[in-house]
Amino acid sequence: MLNEFKTFIARGNVVDLAVGIIIGAAFTAIVNSLVGDLINPIIGLITGGVDFSNLFIDLSGTDPVSLAAARDAGAPVFAYGAFITAVINFLIIAWVVFLLVKAVNKLKDATAKKEAAEAAPAGPTELDILMEIRDSLKK
């Protein structure tokens, strides 16, 4: 059973998945910084300084000053601002991943075309064939 486990771990798919998860975690930190430090301030500027992450509805009737104060007091809140922030983060992450996949696919297509062109046997050109037909017709 130990040998089977070693074989399973040594497979390329498992190693690729582990690398993907590690890079994904590092990428998450970059995207969180992009959203929190660059995108949200711009959105706040456009919306007149609204910080979505602090928007909430108090369900307890105690009227806390901020979301943090409500959570510290244990008051039930409907934190729709955090949800809006999560949706914005998701959309930005999805867009960045889309652009990355698109770039990788473009690179793969270019590489495949180059390899196909190099692998294709050098046959006669269209001009060579036309000249051969002309010569045959002259006979």
UniProtKB/TrEMBL annotation:
Q: Which family does it belong to?
A: Belongs to the MscL family.
Q: Does the keyword Metal-binding apply?
A: no
Q: What is this protein called?
A: Large-conductance mechanosensitive channel
| A GO cellular component entry from the record | plasma membrane
Origin species: Paragemmobacter kunshanensis
Q: State a single Pfam family of this protein.
A: MscL
Chain's role: Channel that opens in response to stretch forces in the membrane lipid bilayer. May participate in the regulation of osmotic pressure changes within the cell.
SUBUNIT field: Homopentamer.
